[in-house]
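[stage:ingest] chain + small molecule (zinc ion)
[stage:ingest] validated
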Amino acid sequence: MAVLRARALAVAVGVPALFAVLAATLTLNTQTTPARAAEPAADPFAVSSTAAPFSVTRQSADYRPMVRYFTIPTTDDVAFITIDDGVVKDRKGLRYVEKHQLPITSFISTWTIKDQADFFTRISQWGSIQNHSATHADFTKPSTDLNHELCYSQRALHKAFGSTSWMLRPPYGAGGDMLATQITAQGCGLNRIVMWDAVVQNGHVTVSGGKLGPGAVILLHFNDHLEKDLKAAVKAIHKAGLRPANLADYLPAASSA
Ligand SMILES: [Zn+2]
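[stage:predict] done
[stage:export] tokens:
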């Protein structure tokens, strides 16, 4: 209860910056999402709960609770290929994407861009480039500077690619349900949180629920076997009677109206 009262008080007095820090600290006490070393760990769906965002007694004027999308609501026969991080820039994977004109959503940790923005521009030329933090820090750790992870990275993405990202994928899939994350994210233009319901690891596809369906979001990583993973993803998509589509078309920036 002390946590709840503190949250309500912090919101009521309207000090979002202070509250962001406070909430980040307090949320650790109630956080049930385990921190993991990499998104596709042994149990890639450990955080795939569909629980509604928490409620608060009062909300800051501009804040809206954000849904975490594990799949995208649609009746179209489409699935979405997303690739995370960015350390390894595999040319064979890029060639495969360009040959088949695949719509790829790149969730980039901006420290990986360095002077190779062109790789990501090309691999997402039929998709979009979105935000996967600045340094891949765990949002649930109190030492994490959410403003840096969410807002500095927005500026870095804009500087590197000339576009404004609106989707966030939290590192490790953790902390996207935290009030501090959502308030900070919205403050710098991020208004969609995208998780995943399928993972490709080393050519092997694992689907939450066992079967890809319309609106499936598939997680890959920028690694040295990207081509193999892309082939596996495309094969699974076609086998399910679906086609790859551009996530940005199905999950545009939320209206601020
Ligand atoms: Zn990641």
